[in-house]
Amino acid sequence: MSYRVTLIPGDGTGPELVEAASRVLEATGVPLEWEVQEAGEGVIAREGTPLPERVLDSIRRNGVALKGPITTPVGTGFRSVNVALRQSLGLYANLRPARTIPGVRTRYEQVDLVIVRENMEDLYAGIEHEVIPDVACESIKVITRPASERIVRFAFEYARRNGRRKVTAVHKANIMKLTDGLFLKVAQEVAREYPDIAFEDRIVDNMCMQLVQKPELYDVLVLPNLYGDIVSDLASGLVGGLGVAPGANIGERWAVFEPVHGSAPKYAGQNVANPTATILSGALMLRHLGEVEAAERVERAVREVIGEGRYVTRDLKPAPDDPSAVGTREMAEAIAARVRS
User: Over the chain (341 residues), what is each successive 10-residue block's mean pLDDT?
Assistant: First the structure.
């Protein structure tokens, strides 16, 4: 059986990164058919939107997509293409693993976290308006039982399926007693259905401090939308930054896998962008498709190549002007060769 995957190159360095990731994924031997769909700034002039309906239709047909970074246009179109994708396809769960990679500069060792973020509601959903023009604005925070239960259950199912030991619900229920209070109450209720997985909760500001002090104490974190956006970037920082942090947006029927860093247009076409996050996002896609052994080979190859430090882009070298740094393509080729071996 082959898997048909929507491939969205994106903007800036996106096409180079997606090409690198697809080359590595093909090296696994998993039969993948790519259906390329252009989206982003480059299609606005032709189609009037950075996210044409044909892109959504392709994802609905194929079930999965691998996507490069897309530049959100200023002053026109969607507030965020990523938000539009999530809302249109019901991609309610944002999955952000953060794991230490030997060879990546960081202050921490042995970090292995998974951030599960609710994608559809909370303050980050953007329900806001002016109360008094140019004087006062209001943003409305919506937390519901169905969405909270769905994301917490996703976190526990992920933990059980992947042999994780603990789920921590992160909230501000001490102050936001109704909204975050409901999220916490639902998390406690769902946790009782998973006696094999340890459960605890943390207030979000304390959680940020503890992640900086002792990240090794934590495993899977589940959070409402806005906290999840912030804490997932913090977790990425613990392991070296967004350049090595994969991401996924998953719903009941469809899923989109992508790096969470920007499109870096000033580096477009220069063959210098670090492909790690995009390649690891592809590994998340393989896991989603049930190709766990292939995903593990990709992840292991990435860790080995970066750990050896020879065939890596300049940002992964001790000094950014290191003449031994290789390009995006060359690093991907080294990882692909390790996948095949």
Answer: 95 97 98 97 89 97 97 63 90 98 94 97 90 96 98 98 97 98 98 98 98 97 98 98 97 97 94 98 98 98 97 94 96 98 90
Residue 130, token pair as written in the block: 């002016």
pLDDT for res 320: 83
Catalytic position from the list 3, 158, 229, 311: 229
Where b means 16+ CB within 10 Å and e means fewer, 92-113 reads bbbbbbbbbbebbeeebeebeb
Whole-angstrom distance, CA of residue 85 vs CA of residue 312:
32
What's the CA gap between 244 and 302, in Å, rounded? 10
The span from the CA of 152 to the CA of 271, in Å, is 40
227 classed as catalytic: no
Of 177, 205, 214, 322, the active-site residue reads: 205
Q: Any catalytic annotation for residue 177?
A: no
Task: Return all residues near 93 (Cβ < 8 A) that are at least 6 apart.
Answer: 116, 117, 118, 119, 150, 151, 154, 248, 249, 250, 251
Angle between helices 14-27 and 328-340 (to 10 degrees): 10
Domains of the chain (ranges, CATH numbers): 1-95+242-341 (3.40.718.10), 107-238 (3.40.718.10)
The answer to whether residue 166 is catalytic is no
